[in-house]
Amino acid sequence: MQLKPNAFRLNETVRGVETMTRFALAVLSLASGVYTYLGVRGLLDGSATFVFFAAIIYSAAVSVAIYAFWTYMMRFIPLVVSGVQRISLFLVMLLGCGMIIAMSSWLNAAALAGSAALEQHMAVTLQGYAEDLDRAHANALASQSLLPDVERASARFAALAQDERESGALTGTQGSGSVVQLLSQMSQQMNQLGQTITTSRTEVEGLFEEGSQHLARMRELVSTPGTIEPRTDSFQAEAVQLSAVIAALQQTDVAGSVKRAASDLTAGFIAPVADGQSADLASRQDQVMETVRASVDAQSAALALAADEILATPPVEQRRFVPLSSAEAVIRYWSDFIPSWAGAMSIDLLPVVMVLVLMVVNDAMRRDAQDLEEAESITAAEMLRALSIYRQMEAAGIAPVREGIKPDEERVNEQQPLADEPPVETAAEDGTVTKIEMAQRKRGEGPRPA
């Protein structure tokens, strides 16, 4: 059987958990202040003493502000009944939540996930550098694809020169003449161009190996446990050196050199004078040299076209590693640290749940109190106070008329002393005290007899 109305039970429960509510709010405010201190400490510059005291003052201000704000919300929102006023307080609470997030929650997130966010930043940057190194290496190796064409042209010119020297395959007259000299010259130029491409391949492989070593050290810095600040500094130094390697790889691209050499084959083509002893032989030599010129022009155009395709590849843009603070890293990579953000904001905004619980409980108490009889809602102290006031009204003669007793009879009854009542002292005008015997009326007895 329920001995007390539900409104009283709810009221007693709210009073019982009030101390716990204050304690929980104080602990949450203190926790938010501690994490705010850890977060703001990484944003300040200056001496260690300045950073320490500045961070302490800021975190203390945050703790006090959070505690005071939620105390006001817990006190006022449950007591407000009007819908407009309650909505106004909700808007104020929403504004306060936004300000708390702005001054504390993001710093709490920085303290919770700052190191992980910086490692994430280094990992993302490392991936970008790895892609840049691969692209620069691929662009440099693209020029090596021209080497087979150059070697094939050189071999063809050398073979023609050999055939002309041994059997006169071009002019019909064997021996070393103007045609053999021209073909040998073209073969030598192609050999020189091929050597240039081959030399660049060795340099490209060396630079790529050096860049891979820098990437390996950067991966170790990302995954190695320990303090994040020294690792970030070392990572930045490795990134600078890797950028220099990538730039050097782009400088080794010989596609432009091949194109210029191919253009020189045509523009700088100098045919020797036919040295045939007879006019017929000299005429045949001129015809063969014209054919060689056409072949050189065709080979030059092919090499220039292939070089243009390589040069059309977009170059690798220079990448720069930008160091971030823990707070900046958490904000930039917030989507990767949603649990940390949720925890940081819950520390500051958990009192919203307490405010809503108190609001619902107070509404329930008000609804239950409306259904109570007046006799059920009065306390013992209020009853005793009412009886005392009633006796004072009776003594003053302004008490309400009792049922069945006329006012004159009641006044006479009040003036007649009872046998059981002790004497009451009355003072006369001259100061003489007279004792009046009055019967003592016990509690629970009915009205005094008339």
**Largest sheet data:** 2 strands, antiparallel
Q: Radius of gyration from the CA trace? A: 51 Å
Helix percentage: over 70%
Q: What proportion of the residues form beta strands (DSSP E)?
A: under 5%
Which secondary-structure class do the elements indicate? mainly alpha
Unreliable runs: 416-450
Tally the beta strands. 2
How confident is the prediction overall: mean pLDDT? 77
Largest sheet strand order: 1-2
**What's the N-to-C terminus distance?**
44 Å
Written overview of the protein:
The chain is mostly helical and 450 residues long. The protein folds into four domains: 6-115 and 337-370, no CATH class; 116-324, no CATH class; 378-410, no CATH class; 416-450, no CATH class. The chain is built from 15 helices and two strands. The chain has helices at 6-16, 18-41, 48-76, 83-142, 147-167, 178-223, 228-251, 255-267, 279-311, 326-332, 338-349, 351-370, 374-377, 380-396, 407-415, and strands at residues 424-427, 433-436. The protein has a two-stranded antiparallel ribbon. β1 (424-427) and β2 (433-436) form a beta hairpin. The longest helix is centred in the first third of the chain and has 60 residues, at 83-142. The protein is rod-shaped. It starts with 5 loop residues before the first helix and ends in a 14-residue tail after the last strand. 26% of the residues are buried. Mean pLDDT is 77; it is low at 416-450. This is DUF4407 domain-containing protein. Keywords: Membrane, Transmembrane, Transmembrane helix.
